[in-house]
Amino acid sequence: QVQLVESGGGLVQPGGSLRLSCAASGFIFNRFIMRWYRQAPGKERELVATINSDGGSTNYADSVKGRFTISRDNAKDTVYLQINSLKPEDTAVYYCNALRVFPRNAYWGQGTQVTVSS
After folding, report:
1. How many beta carbons lie within 10 A of that of residue 30, not counting itself?
2. Given the DSSP bridges, would you call strands 18-25 and 3-7 parallel, antiparallel or unpaired?
3. CA 98 to CA 29: how far, in whole Å?
4. Helix (H, G, I), strand (E, B) or coil at 92
5. Which residue among 78, 88, 98, 103 is buried most deeply as judged by most CB within 10 Å?
6. If residue 49 lies in a helix (H) or strand (E), which one and from where to where?
7. Is the pLDDT of residue 103 over 90?
8. Who's near 17: CB < 8 A, 6+ residues apart?
9. Beta carbons within 10 angstroms of residue 49's beta carbon
């Protein structure tokens, strides 16, 4: 059974930091690209960070560059998102996504809420 379980969300003040985790199971983790998306109320889901299967390449949305860092530990089947200098506009549900390009397959986690407010 495939599972992606996010954790680490919460309520944080502007300027604060959080570290999100996504624990994977039920598939061969190191064969998948891992991505973090977020969805704010009333907005479309937005891709914020991507890491390739061996962790050697990352990519970020312009809105989070310099503040977000994606990483992975293939020995633990876990991907992380370090979020620094949080802003109110970072408030959203953050989702973990696993993508295999060929044969194409994708899995989603259930999401974790991040709220940035004073």
Report:
1. 14
2. antiparallel
3. 8
4. strand
5. 98
6. strand 46-51
7. no
8. 82, 83, 84, 85, 86
9. 25
| CA dist list (Å): 55 to 23, 30, 59 | 15, 9, 11
How many Å apart are CA 103 and CA 57, to the nearest integer? 21
Q: What is the pLDDT of residue 20?
A: 98
79 pairs with which residues across the strands? 22, 72
* The pairing of beta strand 92-100 with beta strand 105-108: antiparallel
pLDDT value for 8: 97
Say yes or no to pLDDT of 81 above 90. Answer: yes
- Token pair, residue 70, equals 């994606």
Distance CA 20, CA 37 (A): 12
Which residue is associated with the tokens 């293939």?
74
